Amino acid sequence: MKNMFWLIIAALFLTTSVLGCNMFRGAGKDISNAGDAIQNR
Fold first, then answer.
1. In whole angstroms, what is the distance from residue 25 CA to residue 14 CA?
2. From CA 38, how far away is CA 30, in angstroms rounded?
3. What's residue 13's pLDDT?
4. Distance from C-alpha of 4 to C-alpha of 10, rounded to nearest angstrom
5. Cβ within 8 Å of residue 15, ≥6 positions away
6. How far apart are CA 38 and CA 29, in angstroms?
7. DSSP assignment of 12-39
8. CA distance to 5, 10, 37, 41, per residue, from 16 (Å)
9. In this predicted model, what pLDDT tens digit does every residue of 15-37 receive, in sequence order?
């Protein structure tokens, strides 16, 4: 029972870290695109 608890915690942590990484990567692209649009004016 205790091993199952830690397995679930590890799975949640891994899922959160992967989703967080993708979110920040997308935000970085959005900021870069906004900077390019400002420079092209």
1. 17
2. 12
3. 87
4. 10
5. none
6. 14
7. HHHHHHHHHHHHHHHHHHHHHHHHHHHH
8. 17, 10, 32, 38
9. 887 777 667 777 778 888 888 88
